[in-house]
Structure formats: structure tokens, C-alpha cells
Amino acid sequence: MLVRITGLGPGDPRLLTIGSLDALRATARTVALLAPPDLTAFLARNGVEVERGMVDDAALLVRGSGDEIARFIARLDAGSDETLGLGVLGNPLSDFPGLPTLLRELENSRIAAEIVPGVPRATLSAAITMPLVPLPPQSAHYSWEDLVEIMARLRMGCPWDREQTHRTLVPYLIEETYEVVEAIEIPRLDGLCEELGDLLLQVVFHAQLATEVGKFSIADVVDTLSNKMVHRHPHVFGDAIIEDVDAQWRSWERLKALEKTGRERRTRLDGIPKHLGALQRGQRMQEKAARVGFDWPDVYGVLDKIDEELRELAEARRSGPDDPSVREELGDVLFTLVNLARTLGVDAETAMRQANEKFYRRFAFMEARVAENGKSLSDLDTGELEELWQLAKA
């Protein structure tokens, strides 16, 4: 007897090779392990007799369970001239963990084996349309490969996930990023673990979308990041000597400028995302400018600049509130305040978020206090509001 172990590709009938299809057609019958219904139907329409009942638990056989392999071999007739096809998702040589055990047991039973490769289905490097094996129970520990597998399954089995594109996922990517920031600032480390997982899912989701159209996979994301980090840290991964943080920044900027994306930039400010918060983007631009010497010598120069910008704002207001220059001058005031934050070593975005939260707490306190008397803030006059505000601050 001959068992022809044949690769079925990632699970999409379009990725089943002609060689694999011809090999299965030449068998009397075929067992298709974990094949999705579309692929099984395609095989049947193309002259492959798909056998059912030969394997009790296909997942265990794929994983290499000795007991399951023994039960499968016991159902074979070693003395017959029959050729049985054993279809395996992906390429048997790379995507069938139980292959060595199966080949050894077939040899012990004096049953010949033949391997027909298929399109590889390695989780990190090939397009995935169906899970290789059923996922472990929720109580188990998952691996990186399991996470990518879960994402592939979601894209195939969940209606919402199937509808998503890179663009529709943008709001969720931004939201998850800010939830990570919030968990850090609370601080709440157990929450940070969960939020980092949510953010990681967004990365895996985008990589899966790109994998499905043959652009790049999560493996490419990992390779690109790793190569970038090694290239930009020659003092860690090479023999370069960098004495301090300032020297590290200069080296970082120089190496970035030599990379493909760096060579395409018209200015060193092009690398700052335009969709950053306005305060954060302003501070990043000022930091980059300061690294080439475009900066005040001390904080007093910034303070003088704030006074100058406030005077210009006051001058613009004399033209009326609808004058476009009012908004422009106010923007200059804010930009200079961000520069003050940078000079003081403060992150302007973080400072603004903290100020927002402080106002939230105090205003909520005021609302709760007047509600105790059956009133609302709108029932109070200016003096009473100021008194209540001072109480909230205390």
C-alpha cells in the first residue's frame, strides 16, 4: 500500500497546485485533513474521491498524536496495492508537525509513503485563509504563532472582521493607543498588559490584511523593525562608540537620513506624522530643530518670546474677533508655550492632558456639590460659582 501525503496549500482552492491535484486524482480515495468545505467541494468536483471516517481526530493526527496515528494506520491494508491520498493543509514538509511520527509508523507497518509538496502555509510567511489546527482551549497559554492564527481565523469567520480595511481600522488604532497611554498614566500595570494586547492586535490585524493581498506579512513587519533597530544602534550591535545621549541623537538622525525613507524627505521635519496631536507635533518639530542648533540659549529667551506673542495677539484683537490674524497670533502663542514646555523638559501633550483631568475632577466636584441641594450649576451666580471653584481646588 502507498500513502501519498499531499499538500493542499493554505486552504483556498485557487492555491492548490496542479501537481497536488493530479496526485490526488491518481489515488483511489483521499482523506483531507482539516480542509475547509470550499476546498473539499473543489476536490470532489475535480475527480478526487474524498473519504470520511478514516480519521477520528484530524487535529490530533496533524499534531502527531501517537494514539491517533496508530488508529489511522490500523485502518490501512498494508498488503493491498491501493494508493491512499492524505491531504494536509499547506506543505507537508513545513506545515505538518506530525509528519515525522507518521512516516516512522508507516515504515514500521511496511506501508510505503510518498510526499507531494504544496504551497507553504507557515503562519508568519504565507497567506493564511484557514487555521492549520483547531486552537487550544482558552485556559492554555498561547504563542505568537497562535495569535497570528487567531487573526487569520477571525478574518475568515467573523463578519465584522471580514469587512475591515486599513482605513476603517484607523479610529480603533488611535483609540487603543490612547488607552495604552491612559493605563500608563493612571498607573495600572494589569490594565497596561491588557491594553498593550489590544494595541498589538491592531498591528497583527493590519499585517493580516496586507498578507491577504500579497503585500507583506507579519514576518516582514518583524524583519523591517529588527533591521531598523540594528542599523540605528551601531554602538550596541557593532563597534561604534557613542559617549552620551546627545551623540546618540545625532547618530540616530544621521543613520535615518541614509535610509530609503530618509533620502525621500525634503526636510528633517517630514518624518513627523501630520496626524499627531497639535501640541505633540509642535514639540516634536521643535525638538528636531533644536538638534541642529535652532533654539534659544536659555528659557528666558522663550519667556520673552511669549510676551512678544501675547502683545501681537492683543494687537490683532483690536481689529475685531473675526479677524483671521487673531487665530494666527493665538496659534503663535500656543506654539511658543509648547517651546517653553520643551525647554523646561516637560511634554506639552502630557501636561495638557493632566490639566484637562484636573479641570474634569474639579468641575465634577462642583456639579455633585450643588446637586446635593437639588440645584445645578446654572442656578448659581458668578460669585457662587467662584466660591464653589475655590472649594473644589482646595
What does it look like?
The chain has 4 domains: 2-116, Tetrapyrrole methylase, N-terminal domain (Cobalt-precorrin-4 Transmethylase, domain 1, 3-Layer(aba) Sandwich); 144-232, MazG-like (Helix Hairpins); 265-346, Helix Hairpins (Orthogonal Bundle), CATH 1.10.287; 350-393, no CATH class. 58% of the residues lie in helices and 6% in strands. A 4-stranded parallel β-sheet has the order 2-3-1-4, sandwiched between helices. It has 394 residues and is mainly alpha-helical. Mean pLDDT is 85; it is low at 123-133. The chain starts with a strand and ends with a helix. It has 19 helices and 4 strands.
Tally the beta strands.
4
What's the CATH H-level homologous superfamily of the largest domain? Tetrapyrrole methylase, N-terminal domain
Our count of helices gives 19
Number of domains: 4
Major sheet characteristics: 4 strands, parallel
- Estimate what percentage of residues fall within beta strands: 5-15%
Q: Quote the average pLDDT.
A: 85
Widest sheet: strand order? 2-3-1-4
Order of helices and strands: EHEHHHEHHEHHHHHHHHHHHHH
What radius of gyration results from the CA coordinates? Answer: 32 Å
CATH top level label of the largest domain: Alpha Beta
Descriptive key words:
single chain; 394 residues; mainly alpha; Cobalt-precorrin-4 Transmethylase, domain 1; Helix Hairpins; 58% helix; 6% strand; elongated
Write the layout of secondary structure elements.
Layout: E1 2-7, H1 18-25, E2 29-33, H2 37-45, H3 58-63, H4 66-74, E3 83-88, H5 92-95, H6 99-108, E4 112-116, H7 144-157, H8 159-163, H9 170-185, H10 189-212, H11 218-232, H12 234-237, H13 245-258, H14 260-263, H15 278-290, H16 299-317, H17 324-343, H18 348-371, H19 382-393
Parallel strand pairs: 1-3, 1-4, 2-3
